[in-house]
Write a structure and sequence with these properties.
This protein is of the alpha+beta class and 47 residues long. It contains two helices and two strands; from the N terminus they run ββαα. The protein has one domain (15-47). The protein has helices spanning 30-33, 39-46, and strands at residues 19-22, 25-29.
Length: 47
């Protein structure tokens, strides 16, 4: 289940880029995986 207490900031980009950066480190890249992460994956990456 997704944790609603997690705080995220969306930074609009372009070119189909979707990345998740945590504490300055890239932890997910749509370019590398060729897919969007699931809600559960996002929650696990930011907690």
């Amino acid at each position: 289940m997704v944790n609603p207490a997690n705080e995220v900031t969306l930074i609009e980009g372009g070119g189909g880029v979707f990345e998740i950066v945590r504490d300055g480190a890239l932890v997910y890249s749509k370019k590398a995986t060729h897919r969007f992460p699931t809600d559960e994956e996002v929650d696990a990456l930011i907690t």
